[in-house]
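Review session, final week

We close the course with one last complete record, chosen because it touches almost every idea we covered. It is G-protein coupled receptors family 1 profile domain-containing protein, a protein from Bos mutus grunniens with 310 residues. Go through it on your own first, then we will talk.
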Amino acid sequence: MSVNKSVTELILFGLTQDVGKQKVIPGVFLILYFATLLGNFLTVVTVKTSRTLRSPMYFFLFCLSFADACFSTTTAARLIVDVFAAHFFGCIKIFVLIRALDCYIAICKPLQYTAIMSWHLCGVLVILAWVQSQHRFSQIFLALRLPFCGPNVIGHYFCDLQPLLKLACMDTSVINLLVVSNSGPICMVSCIILFISYVVTLYSLRNHSAEGRIKALFTCISHFIVVVIFFGPCIFIYTRPPTTFPIDKVVTVFYTVGTPLLNPLIYKLQNEEVKNAMKILLKRRVTQAIHGAKKVIVYIYSDGYTCCKV
C-alpha cells in the first residue's frame, strides 16, 4: 500500500518553459527591477532629505514608494512566507493609493488643504493602511496548515495563494471562499472609491480656467492609468472561483512589476517640486563627491603615499 509523503518544498513553474524566452526574461525583469528600485529609492531619499517636500502629499508619496519597493522585492523571492509579504505590501499599496482624497483636497480646496490634511489625519490613514493589511494573516495561517502530498510544482512565477491551494490534499473551497470574499471586495471597493474621487475632482473644476482643467485632467488620467493597471488584474485574479488560466501569470506581471515601475514616473517625476528637490539632492551629492576626491588628491600630493585615507 502506497503512503502519501508530505511535500517539504515547492517548485515554481515560472512564466514560461520556452528555452529561448527563459534566456531573455531574466535580463528584462532584472532591468525592470533595478529601475523600480532606483526610482522608488530616489523618491524616498528625496522626500526624506528635502526641506521643501514637507506637505502631506509627499508624505503619502514616501509611503507609496516604500510599499512599491518592498512589493516588487517580495514577488521576486521564492520563499513560502512571501505569500504573506506580497499580499501585505500589496494591500498597503491599495490603501495608500486612496491618497486620491489628498489629490482632491489639494486641487479643489487649496486654501483649506493644510487644515484638512493635518499630520494627525495623515498618520491615522497610514496606520489604518498597515493595520488593514494584516487581514491576510488568517488566510496565510490556514494555507500553511494545509497538507501537501504532491505534486509540488506551482504553475506560477511567485507563490500566490490560488495556485498554492490547488496543490493541497484536501478540499480548499472554504479557504478560497475566504480569499474571494476578503480580497475581492477590497480591490473592488478601493477601485470604485478611486474612480469616484477622480470624477468628483474633475467635476468640481468645471468653473475653473481652461488651463487648470486641462492640467487636472492630465493628472487624473495618468493616476487612473496606474489604478487600472493595478486593480484590473487584481480584480481578475481575486474575484472569481478557484480556477486558474494560462494568462494568469501574464496578468499578474502588470500589478507586481508594472505599477511599482510606473508609480515613480507618474506620481512623482511629473511633479515639479519633486524634480527640483531631486536635482538639488543630486547636485549636493556630486559636490560632496568632488570635494572628497579633492581632499584625497591633496592628501596624496602632500604626503607622497599612494595608499591614503580621507
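Two points worth writing down before the exam:
Residues 173-204 form the longest helix (32 residues).
The radius of gyration is 24 Å.
Good luck, everyone.
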